[in-house]
Specification:
CATH topology of the largest domain: Ribosomal Protein S5, domain 2
Oligomer: single chain
Strand content: 35-45%
CATH superfamily of the largest domain: Impact, N-terminal domain
Shape: elongated
Radius of gyration: 22 Å
Number of domains: 2
Largest sheet: 5 strands, antiparallel
Number of strands: 11
Distance between the termini: 14 Å
Length: 202
């Protein structure tokens, strides 16, 4: 756990930008990404929307250790599209993000350097259109407690910016929460200090 950072950088809303070079249009779409399954969804939406486009190239990076990634040149010369897009993601140290660049061919071949520049520029422009946010790394815990402790538990959750993933509040309550890694020790100390509250890593 100690080698995982307390925060990561990502985007929280989609962005769009357009780049043109010698008649070719490069439409860049950036999306926040939670799982690689979402990549297919976004791709199919854009393929329907831009059915006449020649290429739908993309790159994504996922996870806190940033080891999960994929690039696609989608028919462009190898290394001219997906890698330059990923380069822009990495130069800003982002993760949990997908960028798809849709290309409409303008009749003039751009050559390898021209393509690399175009895909890189389109991705960079899209990232300029959206705020980069610092997101806390959350550690998941399960909390079991008596209903009488509800107010105190909720106060800790609120004060330390914890996230509630799901909850079942009856006479005996259960919650699954995400605790910001940077505040983990404080939250555990406070929770363990309460009577009738049990907190365990999920």
């Amino acid at each position: 756990m100690s080698d995982i950072p307390d925060f990561f950088f990502t985007i929280q809303q989609p962005a769009f930008a357009e780049y043109k070079d010698r008649g070719s249009k490069f439409l860049a779409y950036a999306y926040p990404l939670n799982s690689k399954d979402e990549v297919k969804t976004y791709l199919s939406i854009l393929k329907k929307e831009h059915g006449k486009a020649v290429h739908h190239c993309f790159a994504y990076r996922l996870g806190l250790d940033k080891t999960e990634f994929r690039v696609s040149d989608d028919g462009e010369p190898s290394g001219t599209a997906g890698r330059p897009i990923l380069g822009q993601i990495d130069s800003r140290r982002l993760t949990n993000i997908l960028i798809i660049v849709v290309r409409y061919f303008g009749g003039t071949l751009l050559g390898v350097p021209g393509l690399i520049n175009a895909y890189k520029s389109a991705a960079a422009l899209a990232l300029q259109m959206v705020p980069i946010v610092q997101s806390p790394v959350l550690v998941q815990y399960e909390v079991h407690f008596n209903y009488t402790a509800m107010n105190e538990v909720m106060m800790i959750i609120k004060n330390y910016n914890c996230t509630i993933f799901n909850q079942d509040t009856q006479l005996f309550c259960y919650m699954k929460i995400g605790v910001p890694k940077a505040r983990m020790n404080e939250v555990l100390f406070k929770m363990n200090d309460l009577t009738g509250v049990e907190i365990n890593k999920s």
